[in-house]
Amino acid sequence: MARQSISFTQPNDEWLKSQVDTQEYSSKSELVNDLIRQARNQQIEIDWIKAKLDKAEHNGFSNDSKKQILAQAKSIVND
């Protein structure tokens, strides 16, 4: 595992210490790794949503009414 030296602001350091003190995590390193893992997972979700939005934008907009769109969605689900 790569070893790093990083500095924290006072409020962030106090928060990290409090998480370790409550035994939520065994060390600051474990907590920082978990936060990075969570951020990476969030980025994967954001990228997926962006890709879906980009695809939808490139497919154009619909002139169908809300009622027609709902009917189409229901027919897709029921098939």
Characteristic key phrases:
single chain; 79 residues; mainly alpha; 3 helices; elongated
What features would you describe in this structure?
It is a single chain. Helix content is 71%, strand content 0%. The chain is built from three helices and no strands. It is an all-alpha fold. The mean pLDDT is 92. It is elongated, with a radius of gyration of 23 Å. The chain has one domain (10-78).
Brief rundown of the structure:
With 79 residues, the protein is mainly alpha-helical.
**Class computed from helices, strands and strand pairing:** mainly alpha
Count of discrete alpha- or pi-helical segments spanning 4 or more residues: 3
Q: Can you summarize the main beta sheet?
A: none
Strand content: under 5%
Radius of gyration computed on alpha carbons: 23 Å
Total domain count: 1
Order of helices and strands: HHH
Compute the number of strand runs. Answer: 0
Distance between the termini: 50 Å
Task: Catalogue the unreliable spans.
Answer: none
Task: Tell me the helix content.
Answer: over 70%
Per-chain topology:
Blueprint: H1 10-21, H2 28-58, H3 66-78
